[in-house]
Input
Amino acid sequence: MATWTTSPPPPPVALQLLEPQAENGSPEVESDNEDREVEEFRIFMSYCSFPALKILLKNYLGCEDGDLDESVLKELEEVVELARMTPADISQVLNKNRHKKEKTVCELLETLKLKAEMNEKIES
Output
């Protein structure tokens, strides 16, 4: 798990999971009742930071610090915070072409730029 170095963690992303509830409040195992209550659970996940992205690049692609061009690393660092993607979202991109490092890094950079641009339009 990545640690935060100089900046505070980004705001969390909330996921809601719903679980059927029996009349007594405990989770149902099996039920034919269509009118059952639903309890809400929330899981908070932080957006991916640059240090966490470097760990993902190492784990998925085997990229060490000197493997990627400095300009590419700089671009990734600038755009990852703006993209507001979770580590799981980034892992999906990395997993698509994990045997072709350069192609995967280019695809990741384009995905991050696109997501950052979309976020900027939403905020405007």
In short: The chain has a mean pLDDT of 79. The helical segments are 50-61, 70-83, 87-96, 101-123. The longest strand covers residues 13-21. Residues 77 and 108 are 12 Å apart (CA to CA).
